[in-house]
Design brief:
Blueprint: H1 14-25, H2 31-35, H3 40-66, H4 73-81, H5 83-112, H6 127-146, H7 149-181, H8 199-212, H9 217-220, H10 228-257, H11 268-279, H12 286-318, H13 336-353, H14 359-390, H15 405-425, H16 436-465
Helix pairs in contact: 1-7, 1-10, 1-12, 3-8, 3-10, 3-14, 3-15, 4-5, 4-14, 5-6, 5-12, 5-13, 5-14, 5-16, 6-7, 6-12, 6-13, 7-10, 7-11, 7-12, 8-14, 8-15, 10-11, 12-13, 14-15, 14-16
């Protein structure tokens, strides 16, 4: 088999990568959770942008410029701290998406239920319908991504456009609603300032941070991007500015139409739009908006499904997970086994959590566990930024993106502190639940049931492969099927 046939294909240009990052970052589905904090949610979006998103951007630009290869955050952690920490970071990044992708699919089904009007309205409240349709969508997206990023990128592109059109329409609806009935929630200037003395505020801030992750996704696909050193920074800048603006506008639009105490977790945006459209005699717009939001959720799910699967693919090449995960499809040049295994794990989780849980509780548990597992690799990334920039890491390089070392140090320190706070408060429920301690126990057990196997698997495989150095995707002759 020729070397050319064994390599990944560079299928993403600047436009494709920008749309992919927007699809990954801009998750309108989580806006209702943030909006439940009241008008201060807008302040939380701004704080998250200043103290998490900007440090994240600095870290991604600096590290992806130095190490643009496939694997991104996994390779950065390996360079700074070695194989064990890289495995834990990569494992958390991968397994969190086993939870996260199903939450996006739940959103998608919930939004799609509005498309058919009264005939499909009950689907979003039926756990088994939600689970069944989610499984169908999961494997459909998996099939498209196995066909290649050249195919899968269109799902992300349509998802990004769906988010833009949705935000534009609901903002217009919100403005019309204000003119007719006034604001659903009073928004004096002082109400925009978050009350940082309440733990619930910090819990919701963790959700905000989760919605700002994703800039590193492009770097994870480094070997599948045209001119990664040039295109990753440009795409990150464009996607970041666009996403932050859309989050603030969508939150404002939702709060103009629905009282805070009535905002639903899963269908909150459509709930507000439906109420406003009813008053404006424009209910015919609900189905198109629901379709656009479904596209946004599909693009979001596809982006994370594709990106996260590259982590076990690279770890499989390093042999700390089964080598089969590092195989590339003979025809489509994609990590098909890694994609299939990830979707199988998500399917199992959807099935297990559909038994004996309400849709709302199932969603909240998924969301909190996702936040914790997603943010653990960010803890590694921010410390790796400091360590690599200081030149104390193995295989370091002086070829940085930023001239100022102290800028990187500051970004690493601030990003780490905010991320650590997000992890801590993610163990607490963001809203009232019937059994708080039971809820927390489920989250603790869920997190550690994934962390403990990480150390066990690494130690087992490390003994098998000995001290052999890890190899990169470029050096590996992956088995092709």
């Amino acid at each position: 088999m020729s070397t050319e046939e064994q390599r990944l294909v560079r299928a993403l240009g600047l436009r494709d990568l920008t749309f992919l990052l927007i699809a990954a970052i801009l998750n309108l589905n989580s806006v209702p959770v943030a909006a439940s904090a009241g008008p201060s949610a807008i302040g939380l979006w701004i704080l998250g942008f200043l103290f998490f998103f900007i440090p994240q951007g600095i870290a991604v630009l600096e590290l992806s410029h130095r190490y643009p290869q496939e694997g991104g955050i996994y390779n950065w952690t390996k360079t700074a701290f070695g194989n064990m920490h890289a495995f834990v970071s990569g494992w958390c990044y991968w397994t969190n998406n086993i939870f996260y992708v199903p939450t996006l699919l739940f959103y998608l089904v919930g939004f799609a239920a509005f498309i058919g009007g009264d005939a499909t309205a009950g689907i979003g409240n039926n756990t088994y319908w939600m689970a069944g349709i989610s499984l169908f969508l999961l494997w459909s997206l998996t099939g498209l991504n196995i066909l290649g990023l050249g195919v899968g990128k269109w799902v992300q592109s349509f998802g990004s456009m769906g988010a833009f059109l949705t935000t534009t329409i609901i903002l217009g609806v919100g403005i019309l609603s204000i003119g007719l009935h006034g604001m659903a929630n009073a928004m004096p200037l002082q109400s925009l300032v978050p009350n940082l003395g309440q733990w619930t505020t910090w819990t919701i801030f963790g959700v905000v941070c989760l919605n700002y992750v994703g800039l590193e996704l492009g770097a994870i696909m480094g070997d599948e991007i045209h001119e990664p050193r040039r295109n990753i920074p440009r795409a990150a800048l464009l996607a970041g500015i666009f996403s932050v603006t859309m989050y603030v506008l969508a939150t404002f639009a939702l709060q103009t139409t629905v009282p805070v105490e009535e905002i639903g977790l899963i269908d909150g945006i459509l709930q507000g739009v439906k109420h406003a459209l009813s008053d404006l005699n424009m209910l015919w717009l609900l189905a198109p908006i629901a379709l656009l939001m479904s596209l946004n959720a599909a693009g979001n799910a596809s982006a994370w499904l594709a990106g996260a699967a590259r982590i076990p693919f690279v770890i499989g090449i390093d042999r700390y997970l089964p080598q089969a995960l590092g195989r590339i499809h003979r025809r489509y040049h994609t990590p098909h086994i890694a994609l299939t295994v990830q979707s199988a794990a998500s399917s199992l989780f959807i099935i297990i959590n559909s038994i004996g849980s309400s849709v709302s509780e199932m969603y909240l548990i998924l969301l909190q566990i996702t936040i914790i597992l997603q943010l653990i690799p960010y803890l590694y990334m921010f410390v790796a930024l400091i360590r690599i920039r200081s030149g104390t890491s193995a295989n370091g390089t002086t070829d940085g993106f930023f001239r100022s070392t102290w800028l990187c140090y500051g970004a690493g320190a601030v990003g780490f502190a905010v991320t650590a706070a997000g992890v801590f408060f993610a163990f607490l429920p963001a809203s009232a639940v019937s059994d708080v301690w039971g809820f927390v126990l489920k989250i603790v057990l869920g997190v550690f049931s994934f962390l403990i196997p990480a150390f066990v698997i690494f130690r087992h495989n490390a003994r098998k492969i000995g001290a052999a150095p890890a190899i990169t995707p470029q050096q590996a002759e992956a088995t092709v099927e």
